[in-house]
Amino acid sequence: MADEKRPESKSSAVKKLKATAAASVYQKQWFAGLKARVDAGEDFGYLNADVPMEVLCAMDIPYVVNQWWAAICGAKRMTRKYFGLLRDAGYRDDLCSYCATAFAESLDPDDHKVDADGKPLGPWGGLPDPTLAITRLTCDCQSKIFELFAKNHGASFYAMENTVARKVPLKWFELAPDRWEELYDTDRIDAGVEELKELIRFLEMKTGKMFDINRLEYVMNLINEQEGWYRKTRDLIAACHPVPVTVVDTINAVMQAQWQRGSEWAAVHAKSLYEEVKALADAGVAAVPNEKYRLMWIGRGIWHDFSFYQRFEQKYGAVFVWTMYLAMGADAYIRNHVEKDPLRALAARYIGMEDFLHMPPWNNTWYVQQAAQNDIDGVVYMVPENCMQAVEGSYFIKKALEDAGIPVLTFNADPVDARKWNADSMTGLVDEFIETRVIPTRVKRKGE
Prior knowledge:
single chain, alpha/beta, four-stranded parallel β-sheet, globular
């Protein structure tokens, strides 16, 4: 997504995979088709990433995911303008960018206009007016932002409840695919099923479309197929020394398809990604021929400066090989035995997503396991300044990784708002980290 020339970066990110290019082409075509459906009068949902979008997919209700759209706006350099509009409207200047970008866009009177040359002023012509805005109560401010967003667009606002765990199996990634009744408290899954039934009733009343449990089972099985390919891809990359592909390709190839999960295209695309990476691995192709140090990125993508990930390859042979985007697909989404109860399987998928990403010890245990599997030499961890949810127990994550002998660099930045980002200073920060911590630790650990 972030492939344009920008003043904040030294160069553009270089993407090499056909699957990455295919995802980029598809998302633009899909978005144009979505706008056509909305223009024709169809209902359209705007969802937060932890909303069970599988229900809308099964009901053929078009939707856009909040975090994906924020990334598009960031990549298109629109967030400086949008957050200026928020400030001018009297809102705080440090609202969580991922949640607030679309709300800020809704304040732009030019969003759906074109310039003198006929070029759209808004990203991809701007977000169509949703008729539905759906989030979960996983954050103190998120629901209010969605409510204000819905008001500006004339949409119906719907909030789903969130529950928290009373028991915490440390190796959730081993239990999630097949033993999710053991992973969660029974009454927590029960509550998730009831929330799904309420959501379905809301959607049926608002759109006039009827829910079909058999269609949901089909969608869920397609998702299991898609995520299974991500698991094979993740494990293949982890086993390769040097890696055949870096995060610049995998993030862009995976993110769009994840927000289209349940579609035939997403499953086919995930397979094509694996086959392309495997062909490179079988041919002995190295993404960075001088690979020496393997880096892990924790946090959301730097959508406004994607070339950041490639600035350390030639100088140090330091390669970003891991992000949550591919790895979460591999471990967090698969729910087998769907045919027994599709709604219960879906509840078991979405109720724990915030735990896996944002709650120690769920997340820090997983990060340590993933670091070991991928032979990670150092971790670069972006902690957003303005999102308490995404702070993710950063102290515990850093401590767990460093206790495992892996150096960690933490810094504050924003994934879509580039106003506080300085490419030179942030690059220098990672340069120093590699020179003073990653290289010495690797020498000490492996005697190099």
